[in-house]
Amino acid sequence: MKFLCVECDQQMAFAERDLPGDGTLAATFKCPKCGRVVAMLTNPMETQLVSSLGVEIGGRTVPAEPFETVRANVVTGGPSWSAGAQERLGRVPSFVRGMVKKIYADYAKERGIAEITPSIMDTARAELGLEGM
Amino acid sequence: MRTYHQLTDPDRSGLAAQIGAQRQRVAERLAGVRRIVVVMSGKGGVGKSYVTANLGRAAARSGRAVGVVDADLNGPTIPSLLQDGDAPRTTQDRPEPTRGLDEVRYVSMGQFLEAGAPLAFKGPSAESFVWRGAMEASALREFLADVEWGALDLLLLDLPPGMQRYLELCDILGNPPAVLTVTIPTPESRDAVRRAMRAAVDHGSELLGIVENMVGGELKGTAADDLAREFAIPVIARIPWHPTPDAWNQLVTRIPDARRTTDDGR
């Protein structure tokens, strides 16, 4: 995508990108000759289309994180599990692991906890009387 | 007024370059994979995931390093097939593949979703068809590029029914992948699978052969033989309703070039 200052017949230069958090995107471009600035404002659907490609308007400034698109966009429906919490869950006998996982997940959901860590598991065990799980 | 290509200053966003970098990342990550095989069918319910998981397990038991990408993002079943019914575990913070039964490495959207929850994306729900396909393709790309697969003899991709995911893979991989086709004996399956195979041929994929699944039961027909004759490729396995491990072991030996890493000292 390029912007042309018709009056100057000059390609405008990217200046700034803003993500206001409402699903829209604002990007400004400036004419290097006359200094005129224009803003491109995309609606949520347009913004999402670009986002879904895993690219960034204005150029990528930091390297992509692993699973960046999945982590940012997939509705996981529950809290995530830290590596330590997963390891501890893995030590629970398999025939009750699903039930134990659900107990901790429900505990986290009810309290708005985004990530379950070993510390959260300790707190939940104490509060719920789950010693040994 | 000048047009896009007449403006010679670089596009600062460099979207094409960003897409190119994504492909490069996929290529680098998969550089240690000897053979990529997609397991596909134009027909749903023929047992693609079942064949993928058991082929992967048999190959792993024979000493091969095997990975599986569950490319059926909306109906992921690989975690339950390779993890013996254990609750799926999220891999969000751990780019290593999960080690399943027989040490088959895998990644699946099922590991990111709560049990029973459908795949849903954050974003505007109105007209979501505009971007949802691109989002799924990006997720698939990340499964390939972000997972530390390591050296593999065989990477199997379990595709959903239809051709869309295959076409996305051709773009993501940069080359058409080799295809293992799964069908059941019925003429309805034959006709649906034929379309998928034709598309694979049109895109330049090598057809490795046909696996006829659910043989010997109520499903009647000659789909595998018909397709084999039409495409001049072998029927490399007929899997009965209740297969023994031998059925899968034989299938492994008939996949061309699925060598073990130890075969040449790697």
Instruction: Give me the secondary-structure category of chain A.
Output: alpha+beta
Major β-sheet profile of chain B: 8 strands, mixed
* Content-based structural category of chain B: alpha/beta
Helix content of chain B: 25-40%
For the terminal residues of chain A, how far apart are their CA atoms? 55 Å
Tally of DSSP β-strands of chain B:
8
Neighbour order of strands in the largest sheet of chain A: 3-4-5
In short:
With 133 residues, chain A is of the alpha+beta class. Chain A is built from five helices and seven strands.
Question: How is the topology of this model organized?
Answer:
The complex is a heterodimer of chains A (133) and B (266).
Chain A: E1 4-5, E2 10-11, E3 13-18, E4 25-30, E5 37-42, H1 44-51, H2 68-73, E6 80-81, H3 83-90, H4 94-110, E7 115-116, H5 118-128
Parallel strand pairs in A: 6-7
Antiparallel strand pairs in A: 1-2, 3-4, 4-5
Chain B: H1 15-29, E1 36-40, H2 48-61, E2 66-70, H3 78-82, E3 98-99, E4 105-108, H4 129-145, E5 154-158, H5 164-173, E6 178-183, H6 187-202, E7 207-215, H7 223-231, E8 235-240, H8 245-253
Parallel strand pairs in B: 1-5, 1-6, 2-4, 2-5, 6-7, 7-8
Antiparallel strand pairs in B: 3-4
Textual characterization of the structure:
Chain A is of the alpha+beta class and 133 residues long. Chain A folds into 2 domains: 4-73, no CATH class; 80-128, Helicase, Ruva Protein, domain 3 (Orthogonal Bundle), CATH 1.10.8.550. Chain A has 5 helices and 7 strands. Chain A has helices spanning 44-51, 68-73, 83-90, 94-110, 118-128; strands at residues 4-5, 10-11, 13-18, 25-30, 37-42, 80-81, 115-116. Chain A has a 3-stranded antiparallel sheet with strand order 3-4-5. In chain A, strands 1-2 form a two-stranded antiparallel ribbon. In chain A, strands 6-7 form a two-stranded parallel sheet. In chain A, a hairpin with a 4-residue loop joins strand 1 (4-5) and strand 2 (10-11). Chain A is rod-shaped, with a radius of gyration of 23 Å. Chain B has 266 residues and is an alpha/beta fold. Chain B has one domain (17-264): 3-Layer(aba) Sandwich (Rossmann fold). Chain B has 8 helices and 8 strands, in the order αβαβαββαβαβαβαβα. Chain B has helices spanning 15-29, 48-61, 78-82, 129-145, 164-173, 187-202, 223-231, 245-253, and strands spanning 36-40, 66-70, 98-99, 105-108, 154-158, 178-183, 207-215, 235-240. An 8-stranded mixed sheet of chain B has the order 3-4-2-5-1-6-7-8, sandwiched between helices. In chain B, strand 3 and strand 4 (105-108) form a beta hairpin. In chain B, helix 1 runs parallel beside helix 4 and helix 2 (48-61) packs across helix 8 (245-253). The radius of gyration of chain B is 19 Å and the shape is globular. The mean pLDDT of chain B is 89. Classes of the chains: A alpha+beta (133), B alpha/beta (266). At the A-B interface, helix 1, helix 2, strand 6, helix 3 and helix 4 of A face helix 1 and helix 4 of B.
